[in-house]
Amino acid sequence: MSANQxxxxxxxxxxxxxxxxxxxxxxxxxxEGEVYLDCxxxxxxxxxxxxxxxxxxxxxxxxEKLWHVSNIFRIPExxxxxxxxxxxxxxxxxxxxxxxxxxxxxxxxxxxxxQTAQGLPDKIEIIGFEGAFHGRTYAAVNAAGNPSYVxxxxxxxxxxxxxxxxxxxxxxxxxxxxxxxxIIEPVQGEGxxxxxxDEYLREMRRxxxxxxxxxxxxxxxxxxxRTGKLFAYEWSGVTPDIMAIAKALGGGxxxxxxxxxxxxxxxxxxxxxxxxxxxNPLAMAVGCAAFDEISKPETLANVTEIAGxxxxxxxxxxxxxxxxxxxxxxxxxxxxxxxxxNNREFMALARDQKLLVAxxxxxxxxxxxxxxIGMDEARxxxxxxxxxxxxxxxxxxx
Length: 398
Fold this sequence. Notes:
By secondary structure, the chain is α/β, with parallel strands linked by helices. The chain contains 13 helices and 15 strands. The chain has 2 domains: 3-51 and 297-397, Aspartate Aminotransferase, domain 1 (Alpha-Beta Complex), CATH 3.90.1150; 66-294, Type I PLP-dependent aspartate aminotransferase-like (Major domain) (Aspartate Aminotransferase, domain 2, 3-Layer(aba) Sandwich), CATH 3.40.640.10. Helices cover 38% and strands 17% of the residues. The strands form 3 sheets. It has a 7-stranded mixed β-sheet with strand order 4-10-9-8-7-5-6, with helices on both faces. Helix 2 (53-63) runs antiparallel to helix 10 (281-294) and helix 12 packs across helix 13 (375-397).
């Protein structure tokens, strides 16, 4: 039986033939006793690596007190994490979810509800971008528009338009009186690690203000310290109206959040949205601990230092292996390497070297190590990546 059809599991994943029994920092230990350097981090989720003692202690402590109640009651831990998020961002209010795609659903609903509250219920057009990934729920896949995720599921939802990523003139031509919102990843993840320019985001902000449209930033993957700032929007100085975050917010525990200004959220009144599990005490305890660790200046400084080293070294590999590597892209520790050989085959070659990397669009592999990765581990990652390049070159020549 193939790895992606193991036992009674639905065969929707193209799984690598590996299983892990424990992790420690940037290392994963397989059920076969092999040790791997993890530059996937649960796809940008294990921001503090594996089994971080602060997160373990937070989970144990809260697990002995209270796991779940309901959002029909106050949940003090929610209020504590919302206070932290709003104190360090543009936001005034937060809605907690269990995942990034749920945070996106909340953001899309909020944007349309805002226009209804403005007396413009027909102002529903949401502009997204080619190469985007916003999650797997129905509105999220329609917002991204990737044919492989929407085809076969019936009619596409109305009110979604998709433009080339980074094309200012296309955005100027598309935005208009019926535009409800623009949704964008400041740095695309699955789409090939492309970073939107500061100029592009600033012009987007101007156009949205001119046409009464909201900006939604999807920072599910690029947020929470991944780019070297707590959130990627800080690089451009452009603040969104709504922002979806998740992944590293829980350090591996399922947490998402939708952040917004009070103005953008004014349509989200009692009964407009909800969640059974979102923001329960167990998740919030872990979220507070993860946020406190990731937001430390030393954590963010480490991201910047290691990202600079990896970028420089990968560029050197590009020059030495022009038959393997086309381009190095991304921001911070969200690094994309565009390849000539098939990226899935290269991922297998990297695994042979006990290095785990993620796939990505545009035939890229992504390096998404934990934010706490040290310089020795970064050097090891480059050595293993170079060995994978050698193997790819040898395979092409065979």
